[in-house]
Amino acid sequence: PSLFLPLGRPPTPRERDFRINRPRNTAQIDVANPAAGDWFIGVRGLSNYAGLSLLASTVIGEPDLIVWPERLGPYIVTEQFLEGDCEVEEGLVVPGERKLLRFTTETRNIGGANLVMGAPLGNPLFEFHDCHGHFHFNEFASYRLLDLEGNVAAGGLKVSFWHEGVMPWALAAPHHARYDCSDQGIQAGWADIYDSGLPGQYIDITDVPPGDYLIEITVNPDRVLPESDFLNNTATVPFSIPGADL
Prior knowledge:
This protein is mainly β. The chain is built from 1 helix and 17 strands. β9 and β10 form a beta hairpin.
């Protein structure tokens, strides 16, 4: 499609301030420092089309982290932990047979600037994990299980992450990764993904009765990383713990 974006007047192919042509079914225009006023959007396809959707958003030139709830994919497993296991030593779980609610955490940077965390060595916000053999950013996310009245049923732990950015999710995002273990961060338009099978990617629900609950995930809970908006750092997803006969 072709997109036309004029300021203060309806668009035409010849009269527009911004234009983009793409051979595929998606197109995006980015306007740096847009002027105040009424902006118009025009769309022209190469043939007849239907099901058009438009999204307009304002991006501030700072990082902004959110949890992408569609990625969670929660499920329940039973696992055995021994004294000396990394997760036991780190205080994430107690030894023995535990019933875990596992899920994946996708952290997106929807802001207009990279989240720059830098080199971990010598940075007090990072800690070297002997069991894993690399640095993690301390207490990057907190996980809780809430009942439907908002009471904490399980969790409350804060978990540490190693940030490098795993995939671009925005059309205009750079295609090449910028950060790694030695220079950590999340690019604008990129997401960091912690898979459900990784250490700490769970809430211990061993003593939680069956019922309906909410999984609550908060990134940057202590607000130690700079962001343009801290109010969108939490996501909640409904989840039901089945009874023993189900």
